[in-house]
Design goal:
The complex is a heterodimer of chains A (249) and B (263).
Chain A: E1 4-13, E2 16-26, E3 31-35, H1 42-49, E4 57-62, E5 65-66, E6 74-77, H2 89-93, H3 95-99, H4 104-117, H5 133-145, E7 151-155, H6 163-180, E8 183-188, H7 191-197, E9 200-205, E10 210-216, H8 229-239
Parallel strand pairs in A: 3-8, 3-9, 6-7, 7-8
Antiparallel strand pairs in A: 1-2, 1-4, 4-5, 9-10
Helix pairs in contact in A: 4-5
Chain B: H1 9-32, H2 44-55, H3 61-92, H4 94-109, H5 116-123, H6 127-151, H7 155-163, H8 168-205, H9 211-220, H10 224-253
The chains are: A alpha/beta (249), B mainly alpha (263).
Bound molecules: adenosine-5'-diphosphate and magnesium ion (MG).
Adenosine-5'-diphosphate binds next to helix 1 of chain A.
Chain lengths: 249, 263
């Protein structure tokens, strides 16, 4: 297990500052949720951590290593799974292994194991357009896991699926995390999702992006959203959208 | 019964056949009855006889067919390989694309038929002449579509590959090229037809053999039925070539695509 250390991370595009001096320690094995309304810089921050963009100033370390580009210990799951439509599901999962030069037989085997892990052993030979949105996200997760990363960075991975599927995916993700205890950084704009998943919620606020508040959620999982009403209200307060109807349920 | 209700397939088919044979029968009657000279309009039955004779090897048909196909295949393949290569290069190197864009646009704008006489002067009447014409008829659209295909590569797909630590070569081979393939194939299909036009047209303007040459001869001799027979057979060759490429596209290269219900 391995953690992140962000210090003084700033990102500017020309004149505009998107992220301003982010300091954040992510502990090994932590499930950290980055929460914030859209446009506040969540994806930018996640992609900086993934090494897909470079910081303007400040540094990001994974364990002892400075992040300067995509790293083999980091797996990324994107918002829409971005599977390659011209590849079968199995070959999508194998993509990273191909890049790494893993021999074919070994790739097959590892891809199958990942598909089993995300609960989709039977769709290996299908094409992405034949899958539902939820299944595609599972494949996206399997693809990221195939290289056995120690850290999983997830950018609103369940944002585009229906409510019930999302609940299922959240539950399965927690299960996956509890068995292997990878460090997870999970981006969302959904307060309830953050409350169900996180060890710690980091609230990102815009103008320019900065950490506005953090909450540690120590309640046992699986969690009941109701039991977290107070935090929920507090977060909404911070987001500037106070809940008008209090005490439902 | 409402107007919008669709007629059954059988009714449609029968209707079409009635129309087709009706028109053919009228032509036949007009010519046979001496109302229209067979010089202008051939009797369909005469066309049929001519086509049959050609298919039986008359007028050196298979030799001519071979000549045309050779011109088409060589010119087209060279254009495909060179067009995709240049398109990839320009698509992948934006600076080169920006530099060469006006030149390409100017060359593309030249109506290709205008250079055929000059090509005859330079290259004579033979195979080389036709290959160059075929090449010119289909090269530029292939280049353009390849560039467009490369540029259409999804940012997200590239991001995925980078996060999986793809090398530059892997980015091209595993992401950019597959992304461009549908657009390239669209050009290969339309340009196959253009290539046939190039071959036939080149033969009609200046040649010693080929289907276009045969057509020209028939027209010059006022053998209208034979000219029609050539037109029909050339059309068949063109349709067949495009079909071959179509099948290749659907069965091999694009088998991952969702089948569209209307096609
Ligand atoms: N490549 C870029 N160039 C300029 N501005 C960008 C770029 N990428 C993101 N931004 C800006 O940064 C801000 C944060 O974007 P993003 O990180 O996608 O937010 P979020 O994921 O929280 O919705 C937005 O205002 C966006 O316009
Ligand atoms: Mg985002």
């Amino acid at each position: 297990m391995i953690g992140f250390e962000l210090s003084g991370v700033t990102k500017t595009y020309g004149e505009t500052t998107v992220l301003d001096h982010i300091d954040l320690s992510i502990e090994p094995g932590e499930f950290l949720v980055l929460l914030g309304r859209s446009g506040c810089g969540k994806s930018t921050l996640l992609e900086l951590m993934a090494g897909l963009r470079t910081t303007s100033t400040g540094t990001i370390h994974l364990g002892q290593e400075r992040i300067t580009g995509p790293h083999q210990k980091i797996g990324v799951v994107f918002q829409d799974s971005s599977l390659y439509p011209w590849r079968t599901v199995a070959r999508n999962v194998e993509l990273g292994l191909e890049m790494a030069g893993t021999p074919k037989a070994k790739r097959r085997e590892l891809a199958r194991a990942q598909l089993d892990l995300v609960g989709l052993p039977e769709v290996a030979q299908q094409y992405p357009h034949q899958l539902s949105g939820g299944m595609r996200q599972r494949v996206g997760i399997a693809r990221a896991l195939a290289l056995q990363p120690e850290v999983l960075l997830m950018d609103e991975p369940f944002g585009a699926v229906d409510h019930l599927t999302r609940l299922q995916l959240q539950r399965d993700l927690l299960h996956l995390w509890s068995t292997e205890r990878r460090t997870i950084v999970f981006v969302t704009h959904d307060v309830t999702e953050a409350l169900l998943l996180a060890d710690r919620i980091v609230l990102l606020a815009p103008g320019p992006g900065h950490i506005a508040a953090t909450w540690r959620i120590s309640q046992e999982r699986p969690r009941e959203p109701d039991a977290l009403r107070t935090v929920h209200a507090e977060i909404h307060e911070h987001l500037g959208v106070p809940q008008t109807v209090k005490g439902i349920g | 019964m409402s107007i919008s209700s669709r007629p059954s397939r059988i009714v449609l088919l029968v209707g079409r056949l009635v129309l087709l044979f009706g028109v053919l029968a009228i032509c036949e009657l007009l010519v046979r009855g001496g109302i229209v000279s067979s010089l202008y309009l051939p009797a369909p039955t005469d066309v049929l006889v001519q086509a049959w004779q050609l298919l039986g090897g008359g007028s050196g048909f298979y030799m001519n067919l071979g000549v045309t196909l050779r011109e088409f295949v060589i010119g087209y393949l060279v254009a495909v390989v060179a067009g995709i290569a240049l398109g990839l290069l320009l698509g992948l190197v934006p600076l080169a694309e920006a530099f060469f864009r006006p030149f390409l646009a100017a060359l593309m704008a030249v109506p290709k038929v205008t250079v055929i006489p000059l090509l005859t002067l330079w290259l004579g009447l033979g195979l080389g002449h036709k290959i160059v014409i075929v090449f010119l008829f289909c090269f530029f659209p292939i280049v353009y579509n390849t560039i467009a295909g490369v540029q259409q590569t999804s940012e997200d797909h590239l991001k995925v590959a980078r996060s999986l630590r793809a090398s530059r070569v892997q980015l091209i081979g595993k992401v950019i090229l597959p992304s461009a393939i549908p657009t390239i194939l669209a050009a290969l299909r339309t340009e196959a037809a253009a290539a046939i036009v190039g071959a036939i047209f080149g033969e009609m303007v200046a040649s010693k053999a080929g289907l276009g040459n045969g057509l020209n001869e028939a027209t010059t001799l006022y053998d209208t039925p034979k000219a029609f027979a050539f037109i029909i057979l050339i059309t068949l060759v063109s349709v067949l070539s495009v079909t071959v490429i179509d099948q290749l596209e659907r069965r091999v290269l694009l088998k991952w695509r969702p089948r569209r219900s209307l096609r």
